[in-house]
Amino acid sequence: MEKEKMEIGGVSKPRYEFRTFGQNFDNAHHRMARFSVPVPEKVWERHSDEIYIMSRTNDINNTKIRDGKMDIKTYVHTLDELELWNPLMKGGFPMKVEMIAQEVFPAFQVEIPDFNKEIYTFEEFIHMIQIHPDLQAVRVRKQRFGYMVNNTICEYGVVLINGARVVTINSESTEIDDIKKTIREIGLEGVENINYLQAIKRVTGMINKPLANE
After folding, report:
1. Which of 48, 97, 128, 149 is the most buried (most CB within 10 A)?
2. What is the CATH number of domain 16-204?
3. Could you tell me the pLDDT band of residue 2, with boundaries at 50, 70 and 90?
4. 22 Cβ partners below 8 Å, 6+ apart?
5. Which residues contact 41 (CB under 8 A, 6 or more apart)?
6. Among candidates 19, 16, 18, which has minimal Cα distance to 199?
C-alpha cells in the first residue's frame, strides 16, 4: 500500500506523534533544519496565543482554545512509544449549554457544575473554569518553526506556559517507521515522549515530574 504523503499545515487522517519538552534542543533543532525538505512559507514561523484547560483528574483529553475556537482531542493508544490522538469535538463561542454540559465538561472528567444560562460567552466559560476546584485555565504562547523530514511533519517551538519558557520538538506521521527514523537522525532516541497535556501539568505543578532535559 502506498504511503500517505504528509502535508504540513494541512489536514489528514490521525497521525502518530513523538513530542518532547525541555530547556534545550538546539542540536536536534539544527539537525532537523538540515534534514528538512523545503516547506511552504506559511509554516516557516507561526505564532499563537492559546488557553489550555487543565483538569486534575483527566490525562486523556486535551482541550485548548485558540482564536475563540475550542478543540478537544482524545488519546487513543501508544504504539512503539508513539501516541495517537483523535479529534473529540470542536466548538466556538458563544457556546450553547448543551455542548458544554454534554461534551466539554465530560471530557474534563470532573464534577459538572450547575448551569444557569442557555448560552455562554468565552469570558463566562473561563470564569466557570477559574472557580472550579479541579480545573485551571493555562495561557500558552507558541512560536513554532515548521519542517518536513522523512515525510514526517516536524516542528521546533518556543513555548511560554503561564510565562515559563520551555522548548518543544516533534515529529508526526501516519507511518511509525518514518517517525522513528527521524528521531534517530536528529538525535532524540531515548528521549521521553511528552505531550502538551503532560508538559503543562509538569510546569504548573499538577504533576511532580521534570521535563525531558531540565
Report:
1. 149
2. 2.40.320
3. low
4. 166, 167, 211, 212, 213, 214
5. none
6. 19
pLDDT of residue 13: 74
Burial of 67 (0-12, 13-18, 19+ CB in 10 A): exposed
d(CA 135, CA 153): 32
- Evaluate if residue 209 carries a pLDDT over 60: yes
pLDDT band at 139 (very low <50, low <70, confident <90, very high): very high
Grid cell for residue 36? 528538512
Distance CA 29, CA 20 (A): 12
pLDDT at 3: 63
pLDDT at 50: 98
Q: Are strands 46-55 and 164-173 parallel, antiparallel or unpaired?
A: unpaired
CA 39 to chain centre: 21
Sign of CA dihedral 25, 43, 37, 183: positive
CA 1 to centroid of chain Cα atoms: 29
The distance of Cα 148 from the centroid of its chain, to the nearest Å, equals: 18
